């Protein structure tokens, strides 16, 4: 068996402080703490606690990353006409400029909190076609969707390119309508194979993923968008709706929480690897009716939602396999 020196080219170093850029498997003796330490990588993903929203809410819109997220609108204390917007810096949320049109059940596109699109939704008395563009400071109204709806999904890297699909029409029936945003206006393109409201989403405007939702009944059906049309692929393990989801690519996504006809599946998490879904670590706080979250399948975030009795402000961060952690070795 190879020795530590044969693998790393040196004996275990004696250091006054932990090294700035250790590599996985590296071991050192910290002479200040008088302990042996090393760097390890996780073999499975896990959830951790993030900073709470300032305003508890559900049915909000959300887009961005684990360290640069934006949440807007939603329902607060039963009102579905909220405009409140908050920005996340990886540690805490800060209130910023509001949406122009208060609404809930909003879709979004954007991979950070500087360039986001807020799409559709509903407020008392109307399903909305409103689209608003966020430039890092404020929202501006831009051209509406062709089809007003709520509970739809949205994907896209920023406010210049997006895809909006599924959702509910006024009068509740689900829709399969898909629209593409070119930075100026929406164009109807090929529909989903399965009409549904509150689907999960991941990917971009040209390479997207739609999964789960309510037809009714609830479904675990998953579809891939190739820029032209949708193709059915392998289903989720658990059919559900009103989930939280994120993923910057079509081949890697996370879906968490949601509800079924029998129970709130608020903690259940599944991971998509481009071919199939696998159940992974559960969230700490069960919830549904939250915004779609933000981030990649290896580093994502969800916040807010509803647990059946209470609107939530709790934020959780997902860290996928391969996260590096410094550990201390003991003799016990």
Account of the 3D structure:
There is one protein chain. The protein is mainly β and 332 residues long. The protein has two domains: 4-41, no CATH class; 46-319, Neuraminidase. 2% of the residues lie in helices and 40% in strands. It has one helix and 28 strands. The strands form seven sheets. Strands 1-2-3-28 form a four-stranded mixed beta sheet, with no helix packed on it. A hairpin with a 2-residue loop joins strand 21 and strand 22 (252-256). The protein is globular. It starts with a helix and ends with a strand. The model has no long low-confidence stretch (mean pLDDT 91).
Q: What features would you highlight for this structure?
A:
single chain; 332 residues; mainly beta; Neuraminidase; 4-stranded mixed beta sheet; 4-stranded antiparallel beta sheet; 1 helix; 28 strands; 2% helix
């Amino acid at each position: 068996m190879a020795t530590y020196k044969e693998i790393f080219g040196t004996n275990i170093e004696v250091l006054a402080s932990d090294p700035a850029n250790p590599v996985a498997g590296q071991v050192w003796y910290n002479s200040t703490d008088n302990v042996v330490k090393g760097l390890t990588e996780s073999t499975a993903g896990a959830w951790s606690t993030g900073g709470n929203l300032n305003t508890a809410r559900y049915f909000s819109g959300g887009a961005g990353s684990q360290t640069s997220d934006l949440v807007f609108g939603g329902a607060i204390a039963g009102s579905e006409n909220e405009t409140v917007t908050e920005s996340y810096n990886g540690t805490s949320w800060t209130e910023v400029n509001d949406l122009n049109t208060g609404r809930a059940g909003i879709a979004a596109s954007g991979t950070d909190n500087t360039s986001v699109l807020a799409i559709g939704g509903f407020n008392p008395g109307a399903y909305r076609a409103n689209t608003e563009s966020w430039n890092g400071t404020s929202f501006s109204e831009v051209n509406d969707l062709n089809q007003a709806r709520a509970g739809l999904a949205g994907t896209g890297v920023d406010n210049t390119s997006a895809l909006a699909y599924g959702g509910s029409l006024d009068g509740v029936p689900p829709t399969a309508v898909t629209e593409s945003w070119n930075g100026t206006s929406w164009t109807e393109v090929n529909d989903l194979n399965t009409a549904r409201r509150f689907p999960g989403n991941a990917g971009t405007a040209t390479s997207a993923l739609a999964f789960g939702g309510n037809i009714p009944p609830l479904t675990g059906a998953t579809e891939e968008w190739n820029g032209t049309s949708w193709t059915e692929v392998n289903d989720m393990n658990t059919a559900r709706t009103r989930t939280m989801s994120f993923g910057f690519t079509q081949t890697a996504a996370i879906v968490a929480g949601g509800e079924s006809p029998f129970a709130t599946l608020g903690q259940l998490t599944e991971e998509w690897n481009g071919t199939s879904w696998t159940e992974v670590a559960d969230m700490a706080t069960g919830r549904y009716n939250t915004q779609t979250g933000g981030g990649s399948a290896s580093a994502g975030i969800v916040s807010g939602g509803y647990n059946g009795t209470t609107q939530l402000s709790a934020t959780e961060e997902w860290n996928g396999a391969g996260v590096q952690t410094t550990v201390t070795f003991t003799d016990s």
